[in-house]
Specification:
Elements: E1 9-15, E2 19-28, E3 31-41, E4 46-52, H1 56-59, E5 63-69, E6 77-84, E7 90-94, E8 98-100, E9 106-111, E10 120-126, E11 137-139, E12 141-142, E13 149-156, E14 160-166, E15 175-183, E16 190-194, E17 201-205, E18 212-221, E19 233-236
Parallel strand pairs: 1-3, 3-12
Antiparallel strand pairs: 1-4, 2-3, 4-9, 5-6, 5-10, 6-7, 8-9, 10-11, 13-14, 14-17, 15-16, 15-18, 18-19
Domain Fibronectin type-III: 147-238
Pfam families: fn3
Keywords: Signal
Length: 238
């Protein structure tokens, strides 16, 4: 008799606001299993979508979605567990913060408000699926950047001004800043990158002596996210 194809499971983490992080294709018991992970912003909704090669309504396999956090071992928590009472009725139990939809060859678990407690590895498991051979995806999240505050001038010369500001975000190695300035009579800003080593101080050079400038700052992150521009402050050269 021909060998019966073994089932496969696809795991994909999707969000409303997302940035693609990784793409992996691996072999699971002779069947390709494909996983994609996307980053989310904290405070937005997210969802975990499981794709099966069969209609679970027809095969009546018990199944679950498990969260591993950032553990390096196989310790996990079932955030949604589903079992069949009979050929028509499936019962699912979800942990707080998770909801779920109908099951067929797909199964969607939603997270309404993604916070730190929801981050980490997820895997979609089912009866007769080898969990140790399924490559899970990571649900990561970034903070929404807020503009710097307390922008003020701390020094000036005839052709330069030094400003400082307060960063209200959690600093990391990918954080840098951008400064923009314009004469008060102008509508056009000039923008310059403030190198990370300067932290929250920056000196603007090449200015006109005895002139007033409107200066504002924003935060940039390595993943391409940026805050809004801060409220401007007036800086004057000597």
């Amino acid at each position: 008799l021909p060998e019966t194809p073994k089932p496969m499971i696809l795991l994909r983490v999707l969000t409303v606001s997302s940035l693609l992080l990784d793409y992996i294709v691996v072999s699971v018991e002779g069947v390709d299993t494909q996983s994609t992970c996307e980053a989310v912003r904290q405070g937005t909704s997210g969802r975990i979508t499981c794709y099966y090669s069969e209609d679970i309504r027809q095969t009546h396999r018990d199944f679950s979605v498990r969260w591993y956090g950032y553990h390096n071992d196989d310790k996990s928590v079932a955030v949604v567990t589903c079992s069949w009472l009979n050929v028509q009725d499936v019962t699912c139990v979800a942990e707080p913060g998770y909801t779920y939809g109908e099951v067929s060859n797909t199964f969607v678990v939603s997270i309404r408000n993604v916070t730190n407690q929801f981050l980490g590895r997820y895997a979609c498991l089912g009866v007769h699926f080898a969990a140790d051979k399924i490559i899970p995806c990571f649900l990561n999240a970034s903070e929404e950047l807020v503009p710097p505050s307390e922008i003020h001038q701390i020094n000036s010369t005839y052709e330069s001004t030094t400003i400082s500001w307060r960063d209200n975000n959690t600093r990391n190695n990918g954080t840098t800043y951008q400064v923009r300035y314009k004469p008060l009579w102008s509508d056009e800003y000039t923008s310059v990158d403030a190198v990370q080593s300067s932290f929250t101080n920056f000196t603007i050079v090449g200015l006109v002596p005895g002139s007033d400038y409107n200066v504002s700052v924003r935060v940039l992150r390595a993943d391409g996210e940026s805050s809004d521009w801060s409220t401007g402050t007036v800086a004057r050269t000597k």
